[in-house]
Amino acid sequence: MLECLLYRRCPARRPAFYRVEITQNLFSEVSVLREWGHCGTQPRVLVNCFSNLRDASKAADGFRDRALRRGYLRAEV
After folding, report:
1. Positive or negative: CA dihedral 35, 66, 53, 74
2. What is the share, in percent, of the chain residues with pLDDT greater than 90?
3. Per-residue pLDDT for 13 more than 90?
4. pLDDT digits over 27-51, tens only?
């Protein structure tokens, strides 16, 4: 399981988060799970399935890069 957690501070609103995770599902596919929302609220979740890890990794990198361009920052763990 690979995971990337990003956050964005919003002055007028609660801080926002964006999480991208790569996992293998029960059907021998690779899933890219995206979860986003504002802290303290119900997050939105979207799962995309891919037949191989390479395609899933490329998609996850694209989702992460798009979030970084929208102002999200890497979480300090």
Report:
1. negative
2. 66
3. no
4. 889 999 999 999 889 999 999 999 9
CA distance 27 to 54: 17
CATH for 13? 2.20.140.10
Q: Is the dihedral of CA 14, 11, 65, 75 positive or negative?
A: negative
Which residues partner with 20 through β-bridges? 4, 34
Range of the domain at 13: 2-74
pTM given for the model: 0.85
The tokens of 70 are what?
């929208």
Task: Give how many domains the chain has, as a whole number.
Answer: 1
- What's the 3-state SS for 21-48? EEEECCCCCEEEEEEEEECCCCCEEEEE
Is the Cβ–Cβ distance between 20 and 33 less than 8 Å? yes
Give the pair of three-digit tokens for residue 41: 């609220």
